[in-house]
Structures
1.
Amino acid sequence: MKLATRMIHGGPTIDAATGALGVPIYQISTYRQTSAEQFGKYDYARGDNPTREALEELVANLEGGGRCLAFASGMAAISTTLLIFSPGDHLVVCDDVYGGAYRVLSTIFNRMGIASSFVDATDLAAIEAAIRPETKGLYLETPSNPLLKITDLRGAAAIAKRHKLITLVDNTFMTPYLQRPLELGCDIVLHSGTKFLNGHSDVVCGFAVTNDHELGKRIRYVQNAFGTGLGPQDAFLTLRGIKTLKVRMDQSQQNTQAIVAGLHGHPRVKAIHYPGLAEHPGHGIHAAQADGPGAVFSFELDSYATTKRLLENAHLAAFAVSLGGVESIISYPARMSHAAVPPEERLRKGISDTLVRLSVGLEDPQDLLADLLQAME
């Protein structure tokens, strides 16, 4: 089956008990057992829940993975997965990583004895140069947040395999509809399912997907031990959201390209970061490993005054945290997604006070563009 069909039929679709066209919400905490010698498949909902399990099966199918685990948030997925590493281990991490991931790596995991080196992952030589004898993992985002930098996943995975490293990739911006890192040689795919997978700004969830049986067991063990699994109501809503992923992504991506074209060359817009532009440094690599440029881009404005006007006066694009909803969302990385990054480190990474990020929704693109232009003025 093609991806569009698998979004609807790639997991359990019929309730065996009633014939309902979908898996119901199993809003339950515990399950009756009939044998003291042999427990049933489900015993306590922290470990397993049928609604969550149906969602995990669907996301694993879409990513081409053998095992998916659903979490209470994207950061729960990231943090739980990182706990497969041990004190004394070292990770190589892309420099332009999501601020929440930077925070846990630099302020929590480093206190646990798991060190990280942040490198320009667009340069494969820089990745290889950062590897030490104690390096155990390579953590990537492509396109990255918020500068949409592109990492060659095939090349990075090949380096990791030579050095026996685990490659983790945050695939939130692309979703499995546009990019499937496991097919490119990576080991673990991470998602904030809050974003495009759910797509309606009404759920917080996350995923970790792998093809490696042992890695799946290790992540599952930590998830159960820490109790970071997703609740059934949110699992149900995300199952609903994924059914429309293709049509939402297609339209949002088309809208994004129209808005990028409308902003390109505007006197108040000094730079646009979007892999769909031919002049983007990673345009060719991205086109070779993904099926589209996505529906998120960032751009830099001519002054803080213009930035403030845009954020405060846009009516259609909500000035808010997050992305990937049916409504457009304009964010300010310096104070939102990357607020946890120290100011000097933000500037070194290129996250200035005039950088904004736009996640384009399903509104009419001409209405969105007109609203952005009036807001800037």
2.
Amino acid sequence: MIDTLPLIWGLVLAFAVVVYTILDGFDLGVGMLFGLEKSEANRDLMMSSIAPFWDGNETWLVLGGGGLFVAFPLAYSIIMPALYIPVIFMLLALIFRGVAFEFRHVAKPHHHWWDKAFLLGSLGAALAQGVILGALLQGIEVADDRFAGKPFDWLTPFSLFCGGGVAVGYAMLGACWLNLKTEGELQQKMRAIAVWLLMGMLLFIALVSLWTPLVFPRIADKWFSLPNFYFLWPVPTITGLLAFSVYSALRRKRALWPFLGTVGLFIVSFIGLAFSTLPLIVPPDISVYDAAASHESQLFSILGVLILMPVILIYTIFVYYIFRGKVTPETSHHSI
């Protein structure tokens, strides 16, 4: 009988990663777009639009990392040594960004260094997360259940390309979030930027979709073997339809659908990447079954997740409901 707990835990981690990518993705995107805005009033609006949410969004990163350690300790013990450098870089970038968020307003008018820290922290975290994704997709060298590669194995053209793709995708989420949450000049500017970012995002999606099966035979076998091909052909079709609907909504000056459509693009892309990888958790050799903790440990920890995850979800939904609506100059300073 196959133990289903590793699969359940895999789904929990996948859910946490998707939610984190979307929620923290848009506020990292706002941070990257911060550098394109020179108006102090508009910068205040940009920070106010994410002020109630940004620290709660990072809860999902903690859940993902902690869940990996608890449920798949072998995978954790391999991934961390292989990716120490980009992981540490990501954490330092998030720290700089968080400190800048807290200190920028109280440091006025001498806050230009905090502006730079907020911008560079957001950009650095986005790039690092993309590099980590690319390094996992390309695979980690393992021998005797240990990382057997070199400290800079993660540094490849493919991982750097994925870093750029994630940064562009986050910026697209951020632009659509600002289109949703702001009005007037800032909204118009972000709507125009979002059109260009959409084109860039689609380019990265297309190139990664071509790159992975051409370079990694295990991914080509999954996508182009039968009957898998019959079930997977809708993925690029849905991606194209979503992209067109986002573009149309931006041109028609819609507020909500560009953001929701971009979220859809992230989810479809994640489904494609997950199919390319699962059941491997450390490509190309370690599956969720190989890396799983004991049945008793996974059962005990999943019970805790079943209690805590609904609480986190309810809190998240409540916060987004309370702070719904547009951010205006009259309310911006109150939400920072």
3.
Amino acid sequence: MRIGYARVSTPAQKLDIQEELLMKNGCELIFKDKYTGTRFNRPGFDECLKKIRKGDTIVVCKLDRLGRSLRGVLELLDKFNKDGITFISLQDNISTEGHYGKLMTNILGALAQFERDIIIERTSAGRRMAKEKGVKFGRPKGSINKEHEAKIETCVNLYKSGYTLNNIQKTLNIKSLETIYKYLRKNGIEPNRAKRNGLK
């Protein structure tokens, strides 16, 4: 079964063109999402993942419809491969069908692993940087002190350098994302909650 997925990024954009292209390419079922507001919710895509089964094919018009970060897209493609699901991106001429598809799948899988290794390396570097600043990992005790201020400074620096909120949380061993929001706001930064899992 061919299952299509369409997404637009702004309320002003229309889904019609994507739907028409997906239907022309044999999609029997199409799931849709329209991004609105400040949060990146994808109920249509969540339903798509529940519906799709081994041997099915998921089709998008363009690769960026699948996700908003390279890491997220690669992880999804790696999951499709492991679950026996074929993936096709029409405009990018990407397909994991056939012999060429197996090669493409291996390349995408290698890229996904490379991306995971980079995240691990950056997290380790972030911990080293924090330790050099005197940060002791764990919840700070008592009143705000130099150690606490160092953790706040490190949190802000990691955020500015592109770390996701979840990576900052793991790197500095902060129990709550709300604590990170507080640290950032203390420095005049309104956190972008879409960056929680690597989304930009």
4.
Amino acid sequence: MKETLEALLKEALEKIQAAEDGRALQEVRVSYLGKKGPITEVLRGMGKLSAEERPVVGQLANEVRDEIKAKLDKKEQELEEIRISKQLAEQKLDVTMPGRPVPQGSRHPLQAVVEELEDIFIGLGFSVEEGPEVETDYYNFEALNLPKDHPARDMQDSFYFTEELLLRTQTSPVQARTMEAHQGVGPVKIICPGRVFRRDNDDATHSHQFMQVEGLYIDHNVRMSDLRGILDTFVKRFFGEDREIRLRPSFFPFTEPSVEVDVSCGICGGKGCRVCKQSGWIEVLGAGMVHPKVLEMSGFDPNEYSGFAFGMGVERLAMLKYAIDDIRHFYTNDTRFLSQFKRV
């Protein structure tokens, strides 16, 4: 048995040495170390040996197997080094050739607009607050003076999970949650950026998903003139110092009085053109003084505190600022469109 194992070792080493590629080496590995190989057969036949021979033959068989395996691994490494050297010799690189340009990404235009808005309002003393996108009916509607039977809910057709759980239709719930957290003690001065969702047809100016930035300021003796001053400063910093605003009466359930805010057209300078529909003005956002019932539901005494709120669509601001004609461009991931904003 000892002579047999020594002969197997010699034979295997010769075949390993003669192997010229990985395939031949694998055949040697299977032939000698496989389940049907001669070494395995020797180990299976140890039952026929005497008690004195078994440990000697077993030890020798393991030593032979280990040595064959070590030689196989070493030979495999040598063949791999030869293959790599040959490949490098055949595929020489010209290091003097110019490299391939690596495409550089950029901030998404919507993210750039949000960051610009945050910078403006932080500079005006506001802080940034965020909230959940999956919201309860109470914070999305009821806490904002929109009870379940209020007809104004029809303006915000919603994605409901249950009767009390939905994708938020506005970032106003963040305002309600923040007011509630202050437990009736001001001041509260925040903006709330984020995604909102409404069941809407997707076309050039509408999307079922879009972004909003809303603002809220509550303190003693806050007046409509404070709102106008903040919005006028925002418009001049965002659109340019030459732009003006005007306020038009409107209606929102959570503000009273409520206004629509227009900005003078940057194309015609307020003279009238196709972009502003010959009016000289373009609507950009809605605003108003916080309704006393909203203050009261959030724990504030409306006889002691007052405040204003405003809300604007990020996509609309971006479309106006960068002359983008279709809201769907923001969501198609077309690099031809996005690459235009590398300097934004």
